[in-house]
């Protein structure tokens, strides 16, 4: 069952033209996620986690392709329909199909490489944060030294 959200229907065409379907779908998802977390069964948790994995993959792909896709007529309407299909309250909704047929096989095939890349990214981020921290300490010490020197 889809949750009905009180939204001004006259805003739909404007939101579709501007590509703000996410803002219309988001309140529904938040409520559904809270209900899934608070429920006694964990089947609905898996369903919504699957949706968010697929949505994340879609968002990353869209980030790079949006400059081209936005030129297609009705792109935002198709995007909205795609997102609704992905969260449809059926056992084989779009997110389940996309996850089981595309995302999961690619992930399992490349899991070791993905883990290695994530470790490299984490190590580089930690190294950059440490350098930043050291530079901040040096800058603070220099400022304090200059203040004492001018007194």
Automatic annotation (TrEMBL):
Q: Which GO terms describe its cellular component?
A: sarcoplasmic reticulum membrane
Per UniProt, which keywords does this protein have?
Coiled coil, Endoplasmic reticulum, Membrane, Sarcoplasmic reticulum, Transmembrane, Transmembrane helix
Provide the transmembrane region boundaries. 52-78
- Subcellular location as annotated: Endoplasmic reticulum membrane; Membrane; Sarcoplasmic reticulum membrane
Residues forming coiled coils: 122-149
Q: How does it sit in the membrane?
A: Multi-pass membrane protein
Record flagged with keyword Transmembrane: yes
Q: Which family does it belong to?
A: Belongs to the DP1 family.
Its function, per the record, reads: Plays an essential role in heart function and development by regulating the organization and function of the sarcoplasmic reticulum in cardiomyocytes.
The name under which this protein is listed is Receptor expression-enhancing protein
List the source organism: Clupea harengus
């Amino acid at each position: 069952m889809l949750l009905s959200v009180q939204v001004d229907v006259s805003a739909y065409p404007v939101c579709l033209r501007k590509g703000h379907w996410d803002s219309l779908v988001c309140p529904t998802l938040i409520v559904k996620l809270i209900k899934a977390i608070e429920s006694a069964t964990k089947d609905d948790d898996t369903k919504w986690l699957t949706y968010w994995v697929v949505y994340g993959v879609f968002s990353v792909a869209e980030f790079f392709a949006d400059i081209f896709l936005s030129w297609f007529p009705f792109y935002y309407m198709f995007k909205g329909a795609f997102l609704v299909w992905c969260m449809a309250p059926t056992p084989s909704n779009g997110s389940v199909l996309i996850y089981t047929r595309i995302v999961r096989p690619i992930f399992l095939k490349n899991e070791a490489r993905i883990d290695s890349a994530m470790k490299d990214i984490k190590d580089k981020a930690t190294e950059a944060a440490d350098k930043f921290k050291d530079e901040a300490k040096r800058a603070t010490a220099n400022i304090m030294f200059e203040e004492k020197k001018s007194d």
